Amino acid sequence: MGGWAIAVHGGAGVDPNLPPERQDQAKQLLTRVLNLGISALRSNASALDVVELVVRELETDPLFNSGRGAALTEKGTAELEASIMDGSNRRCGAVSGVTTVKNPISLARLVMENSPHSYLAFNGAEDFARQQGVEIVENEYFITPENVGMLKLLAKEANAILFDYRVPLHNGYESCGVEVENPLQMNGLPISVYAPETVGCVVVDREGRCAAATSTGGLMNKKCGRIGDSPLIGAGTYACKVCGVSCTGEGEAIIRGTLAREVAAVMEYKGLELQGAVDFVMEQRLEGGKAGLIAVSNTGDVAYGFSNAMFRACATEDGFMEVGIWE
Question: Where does substrate bind (predicted)?
Answer without folding.
Answer: 226-229, 248-251
